[in-house]
Write a structure and sequence with these properties.
55% of the residues lie in helices and 8% in strands. It is mainly α. The longest helix has 29 residues. It is built from 11 helices and 3 strands. Strands 1-2-3 form a 3-stranded antiparallel sheet. Its main location: cytoplasm. It holds the Pfam family DHC_N2.
Length: 326
C-alpha cells in the first residue's frame, strides 16, 4: 500500500469537486480549519516577502517610491536592464530613459551612457556605468554617476557663464536646463552680494539700480530669443530661465526701494540664495542638491509670494543644523 501526501489545497479542491451546491460548504467537516491554516501560511509568505523587499529598499532607498508589484517586476528581470527602463521615472524625477548599449563580444554586457529627461533633453554621463549584478547595486551606481556628472556640468557651466555674462543668449544654448538655471542663480547671488558690500562701503544704494538695469538687459535678450525660431527644448529652457530672472529683477527692485546696503539684513537673508562652496561646510541654502536632472520644462518658477516658503524652508534647515531659527 502506497500512501501519498495530500496538500491542503488539493484537499480543498477535492471537497469542492464532491459538492453539488456552494451552500453545502459550511457543514463540510474540517473545511474552516483548512482555510484558516492556508490563510496563516499566506500571511507568513507575505511577511517574508515584505522583509525581502525591505532589504532591497534599504540598499537603494528610491525603491520606496515603487509599489511592491513594480519592485517585484524589476527584481524578476534584473538581468535585463532594458526591462527596468519603464520604472525609472518613478525612481528619478523627470528621468525618462537611460541610453544603454552593449559592449564586448560574446556575452556582452550593458552599459549606461547617459540620461534622457521627460522633455527629451539628453545629458552624457562622465563615464559609462556597468549594468551588471543586483539591480539595486547598479541603480545605485547610476545615481552616484548622475550626481558626479551634474556637479561637473554645473562647475563648467558656471565658468562658461563668467565668460559670457554679456552673451547669455548664446551661453544658454550650450548647457542642460537645470544647470543653466542653477548657475544663473548662483551668479545672481554672488552679484547681489558684491553690490551690497560695495554699496555699504561707498554709502551709495544706486549700485543696486545699476545691477537692475543689467538684469533688465539680460531679460530683453532672452525675450528676443523667445520670439525667434527655437526647438521645443530650447524654448522650454529659456521660458523657465526667464521666470527665474523676472523674479530676480523684482527682488532687486524691492531691495533698492528699501534702501538696503547690508548683506546681513533680513530682507536679503529671506531670499532664496544659491552658493557654490569650494570647501565642505554648513549649507547656506535650504535646498539639498538633487541627483537627477529635470528637463527645462520641469523647473519650478517662483510663486507670486515665494518668501514665505523660503523662510519656512530656511528656518527648518537652520534648526536641523542646530543653528537656531531666524
Amino acid at each position: 500500500c502506497v500512501c501519498e501526501a495530500v496538500s491542503p489545497s488539493q484537499k480543498l479542491l477535492g471537497w469542492l469537486a464532491e459538492l453539488e451546491e456552494w451552500d453545502r460548504l459550511g457543514p463540510k467537516g474540517g473545511l474552516l480549519d483548512t482555510l484558516t491554516q492556508m490563510n496563516t501560511v499566506l500571511e507568513d509568505i507575505q511577511k517574508s516577502l515584505d522583509m525581502y523587499l525591505e532589504t532591497k529598499r534599504h540598499v537603494f532607498p528610491r525603491f520606496y517610491f515603487l509599489s511592491n508589484d513594480d519592485l517585484l517586476e524589476i527584481l524578476g528581470q534584473s538581468r535585463n536592464p532594458e526591462a527596468v527602463q519603464p520604472h525609472l521615472k518613478k525612481c528619478f524625477d523627470n528621468i525618462k530613459l537611460l541610453r544603454m548599449q552593449k559592449v564586448g563580444g560574446p556575452g556582452s554586457k550593458w552599459e549606461a551612457m547617459g540620461m534622457f529627461s521627460g522633455d527629451g533633453e539628453y545629458v552624457d554621463f562622465l563615464h559609462p556605468v556597468l549594468l551588471e549584478g543586483p539591480v539595486e547595486s547598479w541603480l545605485g551606481d547610476v545615481e552616484r554617476t548622475m550626481r558626479v556628472t551634474l556637479r561637473d556640468l554645473l562647475r563648467n557651466c558656471r565658468l562658461a557663464l563668467k565668460k559670457f555674462l554679456n552673451k547669455r543668449d548664446k551661453w544658454v544654448k550650450e548647457w542642460a536646463g537645470q544647470v543653466v538655471i542653477t548657475a544663473s542663480q548662483i551668479q545672481w547671488t554672488a552679484d547681489v552680494t558684491k553690490c551690497l558690500l560695495t554699496a555699504k562701503e561707498r554709502g551709495d544704494k544706486k549700485i543696486l539700480k545699476v545691477m537692475k538695469k543689467k538684469q533688465v538687459s539680460v531679460l530683453n535678450k532672452y525675450s528676443e530669443a523667445i520670439r525667434g525660431s527655437l526647438t521645443k527644448i530650447m524654448r522650454l529652457k529659456i521660458v523657465a530661465l526667464v521666470t527665474i530672472e523676472v523674479h530676480a529683477r523684482d527682488v532687486l527692485e524691492r531691495l533698492y526701494k528699501a534702501g538696503l546696503m547690508d548683506v546681513s539684513s533680513f530682507d536679503w537673508l529671506s531670499q532664496l540664495r544659491f552658493y557654490w562652496e569650494k570647501v565642505p561646510g554648513p549649507r547656506r541654502h535650504p535646498r539639498p542638491p538633487g541627483a537627477a536632472v529635470p528637463g527645462p520644462g520641469s523647473a519650478l518658477g517662483p510663486v507670486p509670494s515665494p518668501e514665505a516658503g523660503q523662510l519656512t524652508a530656511g528656518a527648518a534647515d537652520r534648526a536641523q543644523e542646530g543653528r537656531g531659527r531666524w
